[in-house]
Write a structure and sequence with these properties.
The protein is α/β, with parallel strands linked by helices. It is 35% helix and 14% strand. The longest helix is centred in the middle third of the chain and has 20 residues, at 115-134. The radius of gyration is 17 Å and the shape is globular.
């Protein structure tokens, strides 16, 4: 059966961050993911993972000035040194948390005329990251993000992500397919998944269009999750959704899948 990871950046926000690990474990999740670990000590996060028998599934590389609106550095010409220096922090946290997937965010397009230069920068930085990650058994993930929620993001469609993975050509780079983003931008979710199956390294879910629990909206998640199981998908499914109310009261959808 699919393995589920609670996204602690969006779920269990009823308590402070370090208390969310216990909440996730008690709810029956086997893994957790979140956006960024860098505001907390790696040893503290590792202790919480160990105490509650959780796997750290995913986190993101440093995004630049997140509060100022930046959404990654990998495709930004002129920021190569900052991006590559940030990989030192990635590797330090990934090793301590035993995390083998890192989402490398591309960044926003400031000038459409710079798209070609951004593409070249993206390829170079991803190749560099994949090379550094290889020695640690880490896979670099790239994720298309919908243009409604993030209007200026560089990477928005599944086909484009798969083309970039092919261009980089490293064994340890893959696509992070968030069914929420993919439904908004591409649709035809199951066919899209099957077309890129061999290079999809992580899946995330949320209801469409409101990004709430995956028990409402236009995607039939019971059917999709059963198809993932039948197809032998053995990766993680990250639950990156915004609870409608408190997190626990919205977990009825998860009952058939929870860790006992």
């Amino acid at each position: 059966m699919p393995r589920f990871a609670a996204n602690l950046s969006l779920m269990f926000n009823e308590v402070e961050f370090m208390a969310r690990f216990e909440r996730a474990a008690h709810a029956g999740f086997a893994g957790v993911e979140f956006l960024f670990p860098y505001a907390w000590a790696a040893d503290d996060i590792a202790g919480a993972l160990e105490a509650h028998r959780l796997t750290q599934v995913l986190f993101n590389a440093p995004p630049g000035d997140w509060d100022g609106g930046e959404r990654g550095l990998a495709a930004l010409p002129g920021r190569e040194a900052e991006f590559r220096a940030g990989l030192d922090d990635v590797l330090r946290y990934a090793e301590r948390l035993d995390c083998r997937r890192v989402h490398v965010m591309a960044g926003n397009v400031a000038d459409p005329a710079a798209a070609e230069a951004m593409h070249a920068t993206y390829l170079d930085n991803l190749a560099h990251a994949a090379d550094r990650f290889a020695a640690y058994g880490i896979t670099a993930l790239i994720e298309p993000i919908n243009s409604r929620d993030m209007p200026h993001y560089f990477l928005t469609r599944q086909a484009a992500a798969h083309e970039i993975v092919a261009e980089v050509g490293a064994d340890n780079i893959a696509v992070q397919m968030d069914f929420y983003h993919a439904q908004i931008m591409d649709g035809d979710i199951w066919t899209t998944f099957r077309a890129g199956r061999d290079r999809i390294g992580h899946i995330q879910i949320a209801g469409v269009p409101e990004r709430n629990e995956p028990d409402d909206g236009e995607l039939n998640y019971p059917w999709l999750l059963e198809r993932l199981d039948a197809a032998g998908y053995d990766g993680w499914v990250g639950c990156e959704y915004i609870p409608r109310e408190d997190t626990e009261s919205g977990l009825a959808w998860f009952a058939p899948w929870r860790r006992s």
